[in-house]
Write a structure and sequence with these properties.
Elements (H helix, E strand, L loop, with lengths): L1 H12 L1 E6 L2 E5 L6 H14 L16 E6 L2 E5 L2 E5 L14 H13 L9 E7 L5 E4 L11 E7 L2 E5 L9 E5 L4 E4 L8 E3 L14 E7 L3
Antiparallel strand pairs: 1-2, 2-11, 3-6, 4-5, 6-13, 7-12, 8-11, 8-13, 9-10, 9-12
Bound molecules: succinic acid (SIN) and fe (ii) ion (FE2).
Length: 217
């Protein structure tokens, strides 16, 4: 009886839902890591503040971004790329905090991808109304590694589609502490985020932060 109750509590703390072949939603998985992760995040944004980048088409993104790791994802008028240098500071991106690596590796393993060692973490900051249109993560050289996506702060509707842009996406509500891992057959599936609803989060305030971990090479 006590054991059943104990297991039920553990299940609530982090549940696991398959959302596609190779893709899982791990609800609450990041909660045990949150204080270390949020502290490390503060260190990153002091050195590499959030900025709203421009797409090659000249459109300014509604999501503000920064990076940590040996390379960071950047977009400007010349295109999308991974770059070892933060174009705003001219300095290397902040290194990947140990707490980030640990969370990413453990979540990947839970999703069936042992030994995940990301070299890049794109940090996205959504304020109310910010959104991300459907896209594939395909600027990496290594598609055998999964993508690990950690959500903090305000909840968002995550759109997860299929291999073609026209595939109708399923909608998942991602709350603080939820992690999505996708790889293998779904590594290149289209995904995006619906416009963020306004709100206030006890730990993160009026925003959603998303960490996406990638192995770029
Ligand atoms: C992304 O696809 O880079 C971000 C996804 C998210 O914010 O949940
Ligand atoms: Fe993405």
């Amino acid at each position: 009886m006590t054991r059943d109750l104990f297991e039920a509590v553990a299940d609530v703390r982090h549940s696991r839902e398959a959302i596609a072949d190779g893709a899982v939603l791990l609800r609450g998985f990041a909660r045990p890591f949150e204080s270390d992760v949020i502290a490390a995040l503060h260190g990153i944004i002091v050195r590499a503040p959030f900025r709203r980048m421009f797409t090659p088409g000249g459109h300014q993104m509604s999501v503000a971004m920064t990076n940590c790791g040996s390379v960071g994802w950047v977009t400007d008028r010349t295109g999308y790329r991974y770059d070892g240098i933060d174009p705003n500071s001219g300095q290397p991106w902040p290194s990947m905090p140990a707490a980030f690596l640990k969370l990413a590796a453990q979540a990947a393993a839970e999703g069936g991808f042992e030994g995940f060692a990301p070299d890049a973490c794109l940090v996205n900051c959504y304020e109310p109304a910010a959104r991300m249109s459907l896209h594939q993560d395909k600027d990496e050289r290594d598609f055998t590694a999964p993508i690990v996506s950690v959500s903090l702060g305000l909840p968002a509707i995550f759109l997860f589609g299929g291999p073609k842009r026209a595939d109708k996406p399923h909608r998942y509500r991602l709350a603080h502490g939820d992690v999505v891992v996708w790889g293998g057959p779904s590594r290149l599936f289209f995904h995006g985020v619906a416009p963020l609803a306004d709100g206030q989060h006890a730990l993160m305030g009026r925003q959603r932060i998303n960490l996406t971990f990638r192995k770029t090479r």
